[in-house]
Amino acid sequence: MTIQNTEKTKKSFKIDITLTILLLTMAVFSIVAIQGAIPLTSSTVNGQDILIKQGIWFVLGFSLLAGLLFFGIDRLFTGVRVFYWILMFLLFLLFLDRFIDLPFIRPLNGTRAWIILPGIGTLQPSEFMKIVLIIITANVVDEHNRNRTIISFKTDMLLFANVAKYVLPPLALIILQPDTGIPIVIIFTILAILAVSGIKHHWIWAGLFVVVVALGGSVYLYNTSPETLASILGNSYRLNRFHGWLATEKYIYSWGNQLYTSLLAVGSAGWTGHGNETVLITLLEPQNDFIFAVIGKNYGFLGTATVLIVNLLLDLKLLAIALAYEHPRERYMVAGLLGMLLFQQVQNMGMIVGLLPITGITLPMISAGGSSLLSYMIPFAIVYHMSNENKNKTIH
Fold this sequence. Notes:
Blueprint: H1 2-11, H2 17-37, H3 47-71, H4 74-78, H5 80-96, E1 115-117, E2 121-123, H6 125-147, H7 153-175, H8 181-195, H9 201-224, H10 226-233, H11 236-246, H12 257-267, H13 291-324, H14 328-352, H15 370-395
Antiparallel strand pairs: 1-2
Helix pairs in contact: 2-3, 2-13, 3-15, 5-6, 5-7, 6-7, 6-8, 6-14, 6-15, 7-8, 8-14, 9-10, 12-13, 13-14, 13-15, 14-15
């Protein structure tokens, strides 16, 4: 009887058409945007090669998505700790390369974040780790809530400690690469899961207060005592990001150049943009961090608004699926995925128009990058499963 029910469930699996259309639309946006970035890439970068690889990564990504749906998503939750320790080993190798020159690791711009796969390309373990941490944290929160009898500061602290023992080790190794973009994404992702985990609301307000004070305090110190801010940041490069953000025109030929050129690209494009072949400015990594500026330059307000709307529709679709789902573990996972997507979308688009400081955070599903693209297909497989369960529940 169980087998028959299982076979019936498999046969009645219902693909979420809306979600599929949104993901395919993001893929088209990515390919078109990267193709438009080719004239802006430096002479040392093969833009056509990046475009072809991105197309291949999308094929592999959707194949991975289909494979995960076929074999079942339960294994993602039960076997996630195995992948966690594999990724921890790879992150440790990247750290070890600081002291021993390993043949399969090549620093890029002073950062050791990629492992070379001969004949394939590169693998960025931190991109997969941020997804693994979403699933692990969802597991930890679900187990904690099933065993908890009361809600108290003590039980909340126990939950924080259980989450921290998984999050802090990889976070430290990623920061040491050095990389600040992905650690910030991970922190906001974990906070999003904890915010819906049932903890006391005092923690949520305290967290928001810390974020506001940290950002506002940094701006205040920059304007009143930059030496103090420099000592707190502990790195002149981080302070230079504030120079580029808050005093763009003063540092137009150095730290403010990236923001100035992106503002020029977006601000001069009008309603429909300058077109793909027009080269008005040069951008550093136009296919990655500044892909939104490329879209603005080429397609103007209509192009950027369309990308913004599709991103918003994807976020709302994920939220709708999660709200309709019965089981909390998967809902926690979607909360983390939504937190990750929203933060990256707001940060990437915000930095292009000068609302936020420039960081190395890319635009999900649109910026070039195989590791990032493949990693996102893992939680999307879980979302497809949730959507199918919602539809079958409605029918029955």
